[in-house]
Amino acid sequence: MRAMRGIATTMMAMALPQTVHAAPPSQLLGKSVTVSWQESRMSRNVGEAAFHNATAAHDLITYVSSEGRVFTRFTGSYRGATGKSEQVAGQGSTRVPRFEGGTMEIFSPYAGGGGMRHIVVTFDSGFGSCSASVTNAGQPGTTVFRGFSLIEKRPVEFHSVSMSGATCSVRAGNVFAQ
User: Fold this and answer.
1) Are 121 and 134 in contact (CB under 8 A)?
2) In what order do the strands lie in the sheet with 154-172?
3) Taking Cα atoms as reference points, which of 93, 97, 85 lies closest to residue 153?
4) DSSP E strands: which ranges in 124-178?
């Protein structure tokens, strides 16, 4: 049943126009939200025969300006190397948060297609703290995903993706300016 919900959520996300989103709640204006997690998967560089186990640390930082503009930075770290991608919602961004009540939902498609990370942040009533879940979502029938490694700067293929240890924090101010 849970797998079916994941597939339905993925299909919904892929059908959503990326430019349509609700304005962030006023309680988030001028705040930064950081979600961190570990991601394990079987991975290989495109063109290689063998997959190997890879576990990387990831962060998604979202800053909501006082005008309601949303900025994101996705960071991955693996074996001492780090890569990052920064985007502004509404400007060709693939990471456009959807806000509804006390939640923020982000679908972050893999660069090669076929799947995405699904990040859900749930805020407390005052938007001063949060909890998060991060899952892998794929199109039905997809067993191997393609993406672009920000860390290694090359196309990769992967499967058996699992996320764990998601944490979330909220703080006043623009963490990108510090």
Assistant:
1) no
2) 81-88, 70-78, 52-64, 31-45, 154-172, 145-149
3) 85
4) 130-138, 145-149, 154-172
Amino acid at 11: M
> Residue 158 pLDDT > 50, yes or no?
yes
Q: Check if the beta carbon of residue 90 is closer than 8 Å to that of residue 96.
A: yes
Number of Cβ within 10 Å of residue 3's Cβ equals: 8
**pLDDT for residue 18:** 43
Burial (CB count within 10 angstroms: exposed 0-12, middle 13-18, buried 19+), residue 95: buried
Name residue 84's beta-bridge partners.
75
For residue 24, which of 70, 60, 92 has the smallest C-alpha distance? 70
CB atoms within 10 A of CB 101: 9
**Which three-class secondary structure state does DSSP give residue 28?**
helix
pTM for the full predicted model: 0.84
The residues near 92 (Cβ < 8 Å, ≥ 6 apart) are none
**Residue for token digits 């293929």?**
157
Q: Looking up tokens 């407390």, which residue turns up?
A: 124
Please state, rounded to an integer, the average pLDDT across all residues of the chain: 86
What single letter denotes the amino acid at residue 49? A
CA distance readout (Å), 131 to 27, 39, 109 = 16, 17, 22
